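Record type: monomer structure entry
Structure origin: computed from sequence
Chain ID: A
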Amino acid sequence: MTELYCASDFAPHLHEFADAFGLGVSTANMPQNAEYHLHHDGHALGLVRGDAPKARVIVDFCAGATAHRRKFGGGKGQDIAKAVGVSSAYLPTVVDATAGLGRDSFVLATLGCQVTAIERQSVVAALLQDGLERARLDSEVGDIVDRIRLVHTSAHQWLAAQAENSVDVVYLDPMFDHDPKQKAAVKKDMQAFREVVGQDVDSDDLLGPALDAARCRVVVKRARKAQPLAGRAPSYSITGKSNRFDVYALARVEAPA
């Protein structure tokens, strides 16, 4: 997918945005097929299946489940906060090397962390950038998303280019195939992701560069019963109902000396 579909009167405003992600802009009618396409309706960029245009996947940090978690999610008591090492004494800088739709980046930014969100897939990065730009105009979350910097590139290359121990925490959440034994239905955005993006088959290769770049720790989000990334046992794990956070501890999470 290389085209971003929109109405002709909105196309001039989208060319610079689309160019940043290697996308074209088309004012033609979106194909009415079973494939996913990018479409901008004048309000938000969405991932839309051609034969079901009302089912849109967008990034929205201002409403829905994201807003509910921001208000009632548990703050520093959340497992992700404990895994990353957020405390009242120090807020680590975090590289979310597999940013996706930016949900975990937003949670960490809500906690006060400065986050570098890396996403290599053009379609996903465009959806995330659109969500960030709209959220910056919102009075409740504008200051939160200002703590998120999106970098559209390969995390493998970005991490390899960093100086040793140059970032506090590297966070990894690779995407894997849905477990057919899991009873809960796959959410529409994850279903779209799996069809458009596919599985992170090279995620094992991220652990080494992440450990080299991190000063304090690397955190890997896994399914509860999944094997550890690259077969390397973590220092310890924080396990929830469906997920766990594998923590590879390198140093105390505190301000650099």
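Annotation 1: The first strand starts at residue 3 and ends at 6.
Annotation 2: The chain has a mean pLDDT of 90.
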